[in-house]
Amino acid sequence: xxxxxxxxxxxxxxxxxxxxxxxxxxxxxxxxxxxxxxxxxxxxxxxxxxxxxxxxxxxxxxxxxxxxxxxxxxxxxxxxxxxxxxxxxxxxxxxxxxxxxxxxxxxxxxxxxxxxxxxxxxxxxxxxxxxxxxxxxxxxxxxxxxxxxxxxxxxxxxxxxxxxxxxxxxxxxxxxxxxxxxxxxxxxxxxxxxxxxxxxxxxxxxxxxxxxxxxxxxxxxxxxxxxxx
Length: 229
What we know:
It contains 7 helices and 9 strands, in the order H-E-H-H-E-E-E-E-H-H-E-E-E-E-H-H. By secondary structure, it is of the alpha+beta class. The chain folds into 2 domains: 168 residues, Roll (Pnp Oxidase, Chain A), CATH 2.30.110; 31 residues. The C terminus is likely disordered.
């Protein structure tokens, strides 16, 4: 019986080659402890805070003790319009909320920051709700290498703190640090490597539509022989 040529070939990668690539080209493996977070609250936040709101925002970003790159799930359903085994085709996508853990300073500025942000969405003075554009901001999460260079990053678009968890107080934990768990909702996230310009400005999108329309009209007027070239 003839053997497949696939079985006679060399291995795609051996241990020495993998280790060599790891040491020379990739700069080592990514570590979950090396990251950076940049929070950008909505414009209306500055008007609500007195005494250096930018410092509070930066400090809260630095005190992110735990964060995660968000996930995405493709929504798929079976395509029944074919013969044979069914296949799943994508109909959309969903983005899961993420949970962060924030260290709190003695003055509780970090907790006050999240509390103020939430009141932009739902003030407790009259229990009304704010306009969506008035309480959504952005959050950027970066993976850093061993030299603190950004190697990968995502941005949560139209994000806001949807849940601020309870914060326990306990006499028996005198040497412990207080942490605040915050769940963030957002519309979608984008890869800052190749999707940084999403969503594109309106004028750029109008320009692309115009160019595409002109190109289609030109191609439509060309003879069929030339369109195949």
